[in-house]
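Researcher: Let's continue the batch. This sequence belongs to SPP1 family phage portal protein, and it's 474 residues. Same format as the previous ones, please.
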Amino acid sequence: MLIEDLFRAPWHERMVSVIEDMVKSVITDEEVLIKEIKDWEASDRRKKMITGEFYYRNKADILEKKQDIAWKSNQKLAHGFAKKLVDQKIGYLLSKEPTFGTENKEYSKIMQETFDRGLLKKIKNVGKEAINKGIAYLYPYINEKGDLSFMKFPSEQIIPFWGDSEHMEVLSFLRVYEVSIYMNKEKVKQKKVEYYHSGGIKFYILENGKLIADVPAGIEQNHHFTINDKPYVWEKIPLIHFKYNEEEQPLIDSIKSLIDNYNLQASTNADLLADIPKFIYKLVNYGGEDLEEFLSDLNKYMAVKLDENGDVDKLQAEIQTEAVEKEIDRNRNSIYEFGRGVDTRDVNLRDASGIALRFRYSDLDMDCNILEAEFQSSIEHMLWFINHYLLMTSKGDFTKEKVNIIFNRDIIIAESEAIENCEKSVGILDDKTIRENHPWYTEEVEARLEEQEKKQQSEIDGYKDSFPPVKDNE
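Model: Same format as before. Here are the structure tokens for SPP1 family phage portal protein:
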């Protein structure tokens, strides 16, 4: 035995110590989640989401403008460019009901019933959220009636854990949000954390930098939903993402500095107009005591006292705002150019022909092409949950059905020109094709035409009955 062995701990004690050190060095799942939450809440991406929401509501940075000199004006002119551009894109692409092209009539009927006005409105709101924040989310769940429903989660509440670099597959996600509760007869805010994974959902409360099991919420459930008290787990993580573009870059990221400059220039110009007086009086050998007496005499008597060789002159205050107005106009043009929208103030839009209109709407059309491609992919993801719900509830197996999703855009056209082209197409195209290209055409037209033809035929038949039948010559 060596001398150092006398002072060395037994082998099993040393192994226990090594294992304890290894356990302490391993980070727990809860610690990982806490770190992800802290990183997300401090991230620029989340801040931009909140900024996009603020600017859509016209809560711009100009509202924080300050003026240190008390007597000077402090105008805070906020212009709602973000709201106008976002609503313009949504109105252009999502204002009309999309078409779900499928050869299966039964499935087509189910699609019409599923995508009712309520769900289409929700998709419209998701589109607005996606443009404002770069990405938006829908959560599929089973409601109290046992029907499949979709809930929009605010984007800043969601922390997705992606399974690929293109952000197409979600492996799991966190939802972090605040609720107001009463504690000791006082209203306080509590931060809830929900962790959705492939095996179910875990519920936490974030308190003092630690995750505590949320007992009232159920701590943990080993399923995503239940139907008739039977638990089910989705094969995919129940989160459907809708991107504004591939980069998940919000619109505000491209136009915020331009809007801020426009607001500042307009507000500064308004301050200048408010602070500069219309006239400046020049007094020579004034006979009064002070300027207050001068203004009082001028307003009351329309005259002032002067000493010998005295004189009163009025100087016109020249306000130079042309440069500012030009800068504001240039800024406005840039906002619509880089925001990819249409400035409806443009007088040239009024009498523009069909080709000119299409040219002026080309930027908006291009941006909506990108948005449409993203939304087609997302709605296909929605259909996966719809199809599997139908399969689970024995309403049919439509998992292999092919669906062509078409967004019917609210295209701006020159109506008179379109109607004239329809008239010129008579004899070249069939009647239905011509009708479909008419600016006033809707699906109800076909039913009304059929009803009109029946009425006309009924009148013809009644007209025939008023004459005696013609006998054949024997």
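Researcher: Any comment?
Model: The first helix runs from residue 11 to 25.
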